[in-house]
Amino acid sequence: MVRIGHIELGEFPLLLAPMEDVSDPPFRVLCKEQGADMMYTEFISTEGLIRNAEKSLKKLEFFEEERPLGIQIFGADIEVMTGCVEIIQEANPDLIDINFGCPVKKVVCKDAGAGILKDIPRMVKLTSEIVKSSKLPVTVKTRLGWDDNSRNIVEVAERLQDVGIAALTIHGRTREQMYKGSADWTLIGEVKNNSRINIPIFGNGDVDGPQKALEMKNRYGVDGVMIGRASIGHPWIFREIRHFLETGEELAAPTIEERVSVCRAHLEKSIAWKGEVLGVLEMRRHYTNYFKGLPNVKHYRNLLVTEKEPQALFDVLNEIAQLSLENPVTV
Predict the structure, then answer these.
(1) What is the 8-class DSSP label of residue 41?
(2) What does the pLDDT look like over 1-48, one tens digit per residue?
(3) Are 173 and 277 within one domain?
(4) At residue 236, what are phi and psi to the nearest 5 degrees?
C-alpha cells in the first residue's frame, strides 16, 4: 500500500500530472472516472494567490469526486509561499505539492519552478518552511537537475526528505532538456533504491502506455507513475495501464461511440466550468487524440478546432457518432 501521509493510494498508483490549461477540473474528473488514483491542480502562482488574482484563486477550486487531490504551487519568495499555505488549506485539498520542475522561461527567469535547481540550499530552505507551515502533507515535483553537469537528484531527494516532504515525483529530464529527447529513468531508480529514502517515489516522463508503465515499475521499482501528455484527449490511458498491470493483457481500445460520448461530456463540463469562449478554446488541444485513428477524420477535426459556437461543435460530434454507427470499428 502506497501512502502519502494519511492518504492511501493502493498498489502502484497512477497520478495525473499537473498541466497548465489541461488538467482543469473537467479533465481531472474524466481521468478520475477512467482510473487515475491521484489528481493535481494546474500549478498556481503564489504571487497570484497573495494578490487575490482571480485566475489563481479559480485554480484552487475542485470537485469532491476528484479526491485525493493536491494543489500545486510555484514561486520563489519564501515569505510569499509560506503566506499562501493558509489560503490553500482553506480550499481543503488533501495535500500541497511544490513545483520545482516547470522549465518554461517565464517561470524559470523568476527563479521559480526548475529555476530553483540552480540554488539547492534555497530549494531545501523553502521546502522546509512550507512543511513547517502546513497541516497538510507536502510533496515535491522536480527534475533530475538543471543540466547534465548538475544531475544531483539523489542528493536533493535525501535533503528534501530530511526536511519533511511526504513524497517526491521526479521527471526524468533536466531543465536544459525541456521536453526534448527521452526521459532518463536511471537516476529515478537510484533515488528509489537509495537505502536512505523511505518516502514514495513517483516517476514521470514518457509513460505513454501500459507496457512502458510496467517496464518502469519492474526495472526501477518506483512506487507509481505520473502521466502527463499521453493523457491529453486520451483519459482511458489510466484504465488501460491498470488493466495491463493486473492481467498482463491489453484492454480493448475505446469504441468511437465511447470516444464521442466522453469528448462530448468533456466539452459540456469545460463550457460549464469556464464559460463558452474559454471552454471552447481550451478543448481544442484534446480533439486530435480523442479521434486519433478514425478514418476520414481530418475534415471533422478541422471543424472541431475552428468552430466557436458550442452547438456547432456538438453537431460535429453527432456527425462523427453517426459515421461510427454506419461503419462500426474500433480505433
Answers:
(1) P
(2) 999 999 999 999 999 999 998 999 999 999 999 999 999 999 999 999
(3) no
(4) -65, -15
DSSP string, 224-288: EEEE-GGGTT-TTHHHHHHHHHHHSSPPPPPBHHHHHHHHHHHHHHHHHHH-HHHHHHTTHHHHH
Please tell me the distance from the alpha carbon of residue 92 to that of residue 104, in angstroms, as a whole number: 29
Residue 330 forms beta bridges with which residues?
Answer: 255
Alpha-carbon distance 185 to 146, whole Å?
Answer: 16
Per-residue cell: 114: 526548475
pLDDT, tens digit, 9 for 90 and up, residues 60-79: 999 999 999 999 999 999 99
Q: Is the peptide bond before 103 cis (omega within 30 degrees of 0)?
A: no
Range of the domain at 59: 3-247
Q: Could you tell me the pTM of the whole model?
A: 0.93
Which residue numbers are catalytic? 102
Place 329 in a pLDDT band, splitting at 50, 70 and 90. Answer: very low
**Bridge-based pairing state of the strands 69-74 and 95-100:** parallel
Supply the pLDDT for residue 327. Answer: 53
Q: Is residue 331 part of a domain?
A: no
Residue 264 resides in a domain = yes
Residue 173 cell numbers, joined: 529530464
Amino acid, res. 138: V
